[in-house]
Specification:
The complex is a heterodimer of chains A (219) and B (385).
Chain A lengths: L2 H38 L9 H16 L2 H7 L1 H8 L5 H25 L3 H9 L4 H34 L7 H11 L4 H29 L5
Helix pairs in contact in A: 1-2, 1-5, 1-7, 1-8, 2-5, 4-5, 5-7, 7-9, 8-9
Chain B lengths: L6 H5 L1 E14 L2 E14 L3 E5 L6 H8 L7 E6 L2 E2 L5 H8 L2 E5 L10 H11 L4 H14 L15 H13 L5 E5 L7 H18 L2 E6 L2 H7 L2 E6 L2 E7 H6 L4 H7 L1 H4 L10 E7 L8 H8 L4 E10 L2 E9 L4 H14 L2 E4 L35 E2 L7
Parallel strand pairs in B: 3-8, 3-9, 6-7, 7-8
Antiparallel strand pairs in B: 1-2, 1-4, 4-5, 9-10, 11-13, 11-14, 12-13, 12-15
Helix pairs in contact in B: 4-5, 4-6, 5-6, 6-7
Classes of the chains: A mainly alpha (219), B alpha/beta (385).
Chain lengths: 219, 385
């Protein structure tokens, strides 16, 4: 493999990590409030509100049902509006966030649903407000499960980011497409796949180690 | 805060439930969980609500702090009808009502100290003051050495102590206990009940105890309400309900044979003796056999020795002849021991009359269990041919 290709791959790794972490973080900034909303407005939640629950739920479902590659192309105008271009790693963050935020919302909702209903009842009996419940009971109690969800989300977003290579996105996906697919450089293709596998392994194992450390129930 | 035990103080109900109804919709039918219950609990009392599973007691206790909003009726706590309050006022009122649960419901991701500090934090108590209070509370429940461990590392009894400390943090007037000892072994149950009793005496906090176990009620309650099918079927001082249960439900809750899980049909000539701790400590059964010249068999016994006095009850089978029976009853009258004759027409009495066992009974009630930490002695029926 040429030294140029190796340099390209190194840059590709950094671009991939940048896209994946930046978009996952932004997706969480949007997805946590959405997930919490879905949880608390549920019929069995602490402030049931069918209208809000249905609206948010349907919006999340619609976004989740659009295949990522199509979503990517569909929101190109919006990407141009926000970033100024549709090419490169930063431009890829926009569709990644749009795809990941509803996914994260469902992950957060399902983590919150794992909270012991008895603990929620105890908190209600203590006279907590809804905001106190969310900030002091729901999110802290669900923390280990939320972290597991974040690890899974990172790996999923990594997979999406590689697809963005087809429409001018950056990172390892673009290398695989531009060199491996269009120029038949099989070694470049193989190298990107191996690097992606390694990144997923590190995220997964590192993330789970973090969860084990964070969860006070496992002793 | 000494407990106000004056009659005037006891007249003021701190909890008053008026005509509480609670129905749940299940599909197309309404399920009546609580039906027209009215109760009043005076300040500083330990009040028990006992019943079998599904009697509606857990729903009823949740009506006191409006975790369940009654379908109709009033919940007056400390002079205020909670059902009329706004959400914000209700949250404030709930801080005056501590609650502990069967499954403890501690925050798993917080240490013991931070669990106890939790209600103080959410009530806006300054950090330093809250930490000081947490130290006091942990000392009160004897867990100072566990301040920095997580709930997962504690035993059930320790978890319940943490829950009690947490419930007490904001100096509530009332503590609600929802089957608080049902997940604990008998020994731990005893120590948790002792702690609740001590807190009641030291702090004057009113306690409402929900349970399906008569011994919980016997050990700490002043008064008890018996629930069945959503209704209170009997209410009164624990001693009165225990000695002379009026309802079938109370009778079944008290009946040791029933509690042992097998509803054996009792032969006729069976007596239920009840010991309420007011009798003298002298051995009853062996003295009885000597004095009355009559052999009796112990069918079942469930007695405890609390503070040197026998508590609990015993089923004995008397010899069939009327003369011996009369002597036995006279003896019990003389000793001031409460007894009830099993009515042969009611359930039991299908066994043919037979001579009493040749085995003499050897279970002096007072010596049956010396230590408080041997909570019950179940003696199965013996001496039947």
């Amino acid at each position: 493999m040429s030294p140029e290709m190796i340099d390209l791959l190194i840059v590709g790794v950094w671009e991939t990590l940048y896209m994946v972490f930046a978009s996952t973080i932004i997706a969480y900034v949007l997805g946590i409030p959405l997930g919490v909303t879905l949880y608390v407005t549920d019929a069995n939640g602490i402030c049931p509100n069918r209208a809000v629950n249905v609206v948010v739920g349907v919006a999340v479902n619609i976004l989740r049902s659009i295949p990522f590659l199509i979503l990517l192309v569909m929101i190109l105008p919006m990407t141009r509006l926000i970033v100024g271009t549709t090419i490169g790693s930063t431009a890829t963050i926009v569709p990644l966030v749009v795809a990941a935020a509803p996914y994260v919302a469902r992950m957060v909702e399902s983590s919150l649903k794992e909270i012991d209903p008895g603990v929620v009842e105890a908190a209600r009996a203590m006279g907590l407000s809804v905001w106190q419940m969310i900030a002091k009971v729901f999110l802290p109690e669900a923390k280990p499960s939320l972290l597991v969800g974040a690890v899974i989300s990172l790996a999923t977003v990594l997979g999406y980011s590689a697809m963005a290579g087809f429409v001018g996105g950056g990172g390892l996906g673009a290398i695989a497409v531009n060199y491996g697919y269009y120029r038949y450089q099989f070694d470049a293709m193989l190298a990107t796949v191996i690097l992606l596998v390694i990144i997923v392994q590190i995220i997964q194992e590192g993330g789970l180690a973090l969860v084990r450390k964070a969860d006070k129930r496992l002793r | 805060m000494p407990k106000d035990k004056t009659p005037e103080g006891n007249d003021v109900p701190v909890i008053e439930l008026r005509n509480i109804d609670k129905t749940f919709r299940s599909g197309k039918t309404d399920v009546f969980a609580v039906r027209n219950v009215s109760l009043s609990v005076p300040d500083g009392e330990i009040f028990g609500i006992i019943g079998f599973s599904g009697a509606g007691k857990s729903t009823l206790v949740r009506c006191i702090n409006l975790l369940e909003r009654p379908t109709s009726g009033q919940v007056v706590v400390d002079g205020v009808d909670l059902t009329t309050l706004s959400a914000k006022q209700l949250r404030a009122a709930r801080k005056n009502i501590g609650m502990i649960f069967q499954q403890f419901n501690l925050l798993s991701q917080r240490t013991v100290a931070h669990n106890v500090r939790f209600p103080l934090e959410t009530s806006g108590v300054p950090r330093a003051q809250a930490d000081e209070r947490v130290r006091e509370l942990l000392q009160l429940v004897d867990l100072s050495d566990k301040a920095d461990v997580y709930p997962a590392q504690l035993s059930g009894g320790q978890k319940q102590r943490v829950a009690i400390a947490r419930a007490l943090a904001c100096n509530p007037k009332i503590i609600l206990c929802d089957e608080a000892t049902s997940a604990l072994d008998p020994l731990t149950t005893h120590s948790i009940l002792d702690l609740l009793k001590r807190l009641n005496e030291q702090l004057g906090v009113t306690i409402v105890v929900i349970t399906h176990e008569m011994r919980v009620v016997e050990q700490i309650c002043d008064r008890v309400a018996v629930m069945d099918a959503g209704q209170v079927v009997e209410e009164g001082r624990v001693r009165d309900v225990f000695l002379r249960p009026q309802s079938e439900t109370a009778r079944r809750l008290i009946d040791p044979a029933y509690q042992a899980g097998s509803r054996v049909s009792l032969p006729p000539n069976t007596l239920r003796l009840a010991f309420t701790g007011e009798e003298s400590g002298a051995p009853v059964i062996s003295d009885l056999t000597v004095q009355c010249d009559a052999m009796v068999s112990i069918m079942s016994a469930n007695t405890e020795n609390i503070g040197g006095k026998p508590f609990g009850q015993m089923l004995i089978e008397m010899p069939p002849d009327a003369a011996s029976q009369a002597r036995i009853c006279a003896y019990l009258d003389k000793r001031g021991i409460f007894y009830e004759k099993n009515d042969a027409s009611e359930g039991g009495g299908r066994m043919p009359k037979q001579a009493a066992s040749t085995l003499p009974a050897q279970m002096p009630a007072s010596d049956a269990s010396d230590a408080c930490d041997a909570p019950q002695n179940d003696v199965p029926a013996i001496g039947k041919e």
